[in-house]
Amino acid sequence: MKRFADRLREARVAAGMTQEQLGFALGITKSSVSAWENGRETPSFKMLPELRRALGRSLDELICGVASGDHRQIAEGSPTYASDESSPVARNEKERALLLRYRNLPVKRRAALLDLLKPSE
Predict the structure, then answer these.
(1) Residues of 93-118 as b/e, b for ≥16 C-beta within 10 angstroms?
(2) How far is CA 89 from the centre of its chain?
(3) Are the CB atoms for 25 and 17 separated by under 8 Å?
(4) Per-state percent for the chain, helix, strand, coil, to nearest 5
(5) Half-sphere exposure of 105 (CA within 13 A, CB side)
(6) Domains of the chain, each with CATH number or no CATH
(7) CA atoms in the 13 A half-sphere facing the CB of 27
(8) 92/115 Cα distance (integer angstroms)
(9) Could you tell me if 37 and 9 are in contact, meaning their C-beta atoms sit under 8 angstroms apart?
(10) Were both Cys, which of 8, 54, 64, 83 would link to 68 (CB 3.0–4.6 Å)?
């Protein structure tokens, strides 16, 4: 069974983020993220919701290795996608990566991207 540190690293890499980018998104240093990923430290309880948001993964998946709404252990290498009502569900890994990158954009850049994607009238 994978450790939290391994699941965290995999989630960060899948989100296309460096340790420095994740640290910036969370308001912490790159060395803190590195310590989490190497198992030397663990994030504080109050940091978990921000970590979930930044990586686009459920806390069940990050902490326990269990997909949201599924309390059985996930098979090794199975892709998991958002399943809570507030998050659109990605149909494949490419959509998931795009959704995670979109969610990590600053608010103004999200708005600009949505304007760019509007159908022409």
Answers:
(1) eeebeebbeebbeeeeeeeeeeeeee
(2) 14
(3) yes
(4) 55, 0, 45
(5) 14
(6) 4-117 (1.10.260.40)
(7) 5
(8) 24
(9) yes
(10) 83
CB 22 within 8 A of CB 50: no
Check if the beta carbon of residue 54 is closer than 8 Å to that of residue 60. Answer: no
- pLDDT (tens digit, 0 to 9) for every residue of the chain, 121 residues total? 688 899 999 999 999 999 999 999 999 999 999 999 999 999 998 898 899 999 988 888 888 877 644 433 333 444 444 444 345 566 778 787 787 788 777 888 888 888 787 776 5
Give the amino acid at 74: I
- Of 59, 53, 54, 62, nearest to 20 by C-alpha is 54
Rounded Cα distance between 34 and 28, Å, is: 11
Helix (H, G, I), strand (E, B) or coil at 113: helix
User: Of the candidates 14, 6, 5, which has an alpha carbon nearest to the alpha carbon of residue 103?
Assistant: 14
